[in-house]
């Protein structure tokens, strides 16, 4: 048995290879063609940086990228604060309905969240724009942060907080000196997850965006409507790079959070 | 010094503690002993302040504790899991209670260094808890709890995670440490051997009540009731009826064994016809193929039903004529390889009339 585990059969390797090819060839193609010296995504002509050059001269894309970054940063920050509090509350009060309420949006289809948020913004007369997008992103990111924080909490020895109190710490001191430092990896992981979810969200943003608040995914979509230009490849490659860096950092900080 | 007066604690319908009262003297090594669910940990948590009493009062040096938060009580706890802060070094862990009291930094450093010397781990100051062995974590947890000299140290099964050898060594260290610093220890355990070895006095608890409070030797030789007799050490419990009562001796009848004499228990007045139980420690029973007995011994014949070889001793389970099983114990102290009896061998057992102890 142990030998089998150590040396998987050739068939298994082949099957795995096919699946990985299916997963990564489209991404590889995008990256490859972003350096292709041709307007058509058909055949390899030669290496060039010019699509990246053009990209950084395209005002619309730069504006959208800036929007995306601002939205992702603010909504990740807000979602991290609120999600951490929610995670603490779920852990502390141990009520099923509480965790269902906080974590529910994770399981909800994006299209549903998008439509319902749009309806709500209209109902409350919120002008669609950066604010409405940020509010929308915060609302669907809270659950992910809460999940990361709560899983970290439930892995924590409860007697640590009691030990802190026992040794003379007030409830606030115990939180600041023991609970919070131990939660930090969970909080950071949750925050980064919120950031990546926010920066590449399309569906919910589509419903809650207004004039002049287009984000990078929306901008890419509108460019693709005409044709998949090498410029789109270039911006997609950059977006991929940012996400990849974040995911790597995330898995370094807390592998368990990703696994869950 | 610590007075627990009629303390009750309920969790829903479950009565964890039912009007428990006890007094712990200053400088004492006091143990709460009982099976899991007996309420010993609940009582410890009430003393520490992690939980609130439903009824009753806890006094420390005559002052009520019940209104104080854990951080306001001059009481520290050594947790079963040690509860060392994993994100702090050993030195930072030990300094934690001192930082809470606004002692100057140089003084804190000095105190930390001193206590690390006391627990013989001076070179571990900069290590993190997960770099320490179980025994080292244990010592650091104790150092952290003792560094600012609490009035009372609570220990919640602190040795249960250690292996047998290390546990014995830590027991000796605990006894010496307690003797040196003179701080009152309240120790919780379910391990009767540990309780007997460590304590000045033991409170045996069962189902939220105290069964008996006494010194270890008294608990062992003169248990107040069947529970204590059975819980502490190995014990034969023989149901009996009182047949006749004299001043210092009773005659009892045991089903299957007939009538025999036992010494009276000065604590309990038995009357003729009362039911009782004879508690008889296996090591107080004589066992041989053929026995000569004195006037104040009783003798029975039987055969070896089962045996447990434990190295230093062998426990023999002897089946007497009417199917009554009695445990006897013989030391394997003869030179050479000792194998005294085999299963099925005919043997005789005898015990002195004052070897047994009568309980209600």
Oligomer: heterodimer
Q: Sheet with the most strands of chain A? A: none
CATH class of chain A: Mainly Alpha
- Number of structural units classed as domains of chain A: 1
Order of helices and strands of chain B: EEEHEEEHHHEHEHEEHHEEEEEEEEEE
Number of strands of chain B: 20
CATH class of the largest domain in chain B: Alpha Beta
Beta-strand content bin of chain A: under 5%
Helix content of chain B: 10-25%
Structural class of chain B: alpha+beta
The low-confidence parts of chain B are none
Q: What is the mean pLDDT of chain A?
A: 86
Helix count of chain B? 8
Largest sheet of chain B: 6 strands, mixed
- The CATH architecture term of chain A is Orthogonal Bundle
Largest interface, Cβ cutoff 8 Å: A-B, 17 and 23 residues
Q: Level of helix content of chain A?
A: over 70%
Binned strand content of chain B? 35-45%
Structure, explained:
By secondary structure, chain A is mostly helical. Chain A has a single domain (50-259), classed as Orthogonal Bundle (MetI-like fold). Chain A has 13 helices and no strands. Chain A has helices at 2-6, 10-33, 50-55, 59-93, 96-107, 110-123, 130-154, 159-166, 171-199, 203-208, 216-224, 230-253, 255-259. In chain A, α4 (59-93) runs parallel beside α7 (130-154) and α8 (159-166) runs antiparallel to α9. Chain A is globular and about 70 Å long. The two termini of chain A are 28 Å apart. Residues 256-260 of chain A have low confidence and may be disordered. In chain B, 23% of the residues lie in helices and 36% in strands. By secondary structure, chain B is of the alpha+beta class. The longest helix of chain B has 18 residues, at 164-181. Chain B has helices at 40-48, 90-99, 105-118, 134-146, 164-181, 192-198, 216-221, 226-231; strands at residues 2-11, 14-24, 29-33, 55-60, 63-64, 75-78, 152-156, 184-189, 201-206, 209-214, 236-245, 249-254, 258-263, 275-280, 286-288, 297-309, 313-320, 325-331, 346-352, 357-359. In chain B, β16 and β17 (313-320) form a beta hairpin. Chain B contains eight helices and 20 strands. Chain B has a six-stranded mixed sheet with strand order 6-7-8-3-9-10, sandwiched between helices. The radius of gyration of chain B is 25 Å and the shape is globular. Chain A binds chain B through residues 157, 159-160, 162-170, 173, 177-178, 181-182, and chain B through 48-50, 69-71, 75-77, 79-81, 83, 85-87, 96-97, 100-101, 144-145, 148. Chain A: This is ABC transporter permease.
